Amino acid sequence: MRSEDFELISGLLKQRSGLILPADKVYLLESRLTPIAHKRGLETLDDLVNEVRLKRKEDLLVEITEAMTTNESFFFRDNKPFDLFKDTVMPQLIESRANQKRIRIWCAAASTGQEPYSLAIILKEMAAKLVGWKVEIVGTDISQQVLDKAKEGMFSQFEVQRGLPIQLLIKYFNQVGDLWQISDDIKTMVTYKMFNLLEPFSSLGSFDVIFCRNVLIYFDQPTKTQVLEKMRKLIPDDGTLFLGAAETVLGITDQFKPVQGQRGLYSTSNATDDLIGKLKAV
Amino acid sequence: MKSCLVVDDSKIIRKVARRILEELNFDIQEAVDGQDALDNCKSAMPDVVLLDWNMPVMNGLDFLKALRKTEGGAEPVVVFCTTENDMSHISAAISAGADEYIMKPFDREIIESKFVQVGLL
Lengths: 282, 121
Ligand SMILES: C[S@@+](CC[C@H](N)C(=O)[O-])C[C@H]1O[C@@H](n2cnc3c(N)ncnc32)[C@H](O)[C@@H]1O
Description:
- The complex is a heterodimer of chains A (282) and B (121).
- By secondary structure, chain A is α/β, with parallel strands linked by helices.
- Chain A contains twelve helices and ten strands.
- Chain A has helices spanning 3-17, 26-39, 45-55, 58-67, 80-96, 114-125, 144-152, 157-160, 166-172, 184-187, 221-234, 273-280; strands at 102-107, 134-141, 154-155, 173-176, 179-182, 190-194, 209-212, 240-243, 256-258, 265-268.
- Chain A has a seven-stranded mixed sheet. A three-stranded antiparallel sheet of chain A has the order 3-5-4.
- In chain A, helix 5 (80-96) crosses helix 12.
- Chain B has helices at residues 11-23, 34-43, 60-69, 87-95, 108-117, and strands at 2-7, 26-31, 48-51, 77-82, 100-103.
- Chain B has a five-stranded parallel sheet, sandwiched between helices.
- In chain B, helix 2 (34-43) packs parallel to helix 3 (60-69).
- Chains A and B meet through helix 9 of A and helix 4, strand 5 and helix 5 of B.
- Bound molecules: S-adenosylmethionine (SAM).
């Protein structure tokens, strides 16, 4: 691939999704975009790049952006954040939101649904404590393709064996041929919506907990800062944020701070000592 | 070091499982069917059993039921690892006292993820 072509496409990706594609990842462009070229009756990647350069048709740009996202996800990924959600964050919210009886959770890079469904399963397992409560899970992603898969809730044998305890498979999935579909009562707990983290957040409403895991790693530092600072505006001082294992707020924003000893969990910088104490317990 | 008994009538599967589990720091014993596995357990209870279902002499489910009735046989963590991948088999295995269930084909990641789940890693 010519360097000016690489720059055209990588510039486009940065602008549309925040993705930083280093020059040594040019093979990723080739392997993921060549099939798009062929599907459109173009012979080579060069032809596709020309098409982008000359016409800039929106549907093609969307397709290229989606194709370059990395959508890997597992149920209960890394375990610990989900244990923390269940054992510290939820009990704390049940106490502090006792009057409103309302909790809103946002999965900001929901991909194919494993993360929001893991949360929905946890909530279902603690349903006895949530009688009369309205708990909403909103899953968003830039890619419509992954959201369609999430909505269908259909997972391969391989996917249901990464992170999902067998007891939960038995309890919450139905076998459909070779695939496993999540049951309707879990599915209906999650609302999916296409949303680009580079856009303004005003349409989303406010949240008590945000899961923003394994997506900031693809962005440059200014973009990470912008996204996190926009998120801070959506949660109250006692709200919480979960990041992926390879992500942090350190050096990126001082509006959130890590909860000591609870890997992956962040409080706002205005959180009280009392709240932090509760998040550290367990 | 924890001990793991790999029970499968296929030599190839035992070899693959052994390689993965040795990398995860388990001490491996092998058994070729349920009866062989039961004899093994009676002489030395392993910490974990990785268990195939369809085997000659004694199948995995019958082994599991017999194991759980044996003295000390409630202790080992039992993880099925089988091509039987339908809900009725899975439920039967769990009711009989299996702790986890792997549907073949498996790879290192699946074994690792399941072993983490049952607290072995
Ligand atoms: C690796 S997945 C993470 C899935 C899940 N959160 C997890 O940790 O397992 C990253 C997801 O981020 C999405 N994504 C990338 N850029 C985005 C953006 N600008 N806005 C919204 N989602 C984006 C991708 O489409 C992809 O599905």
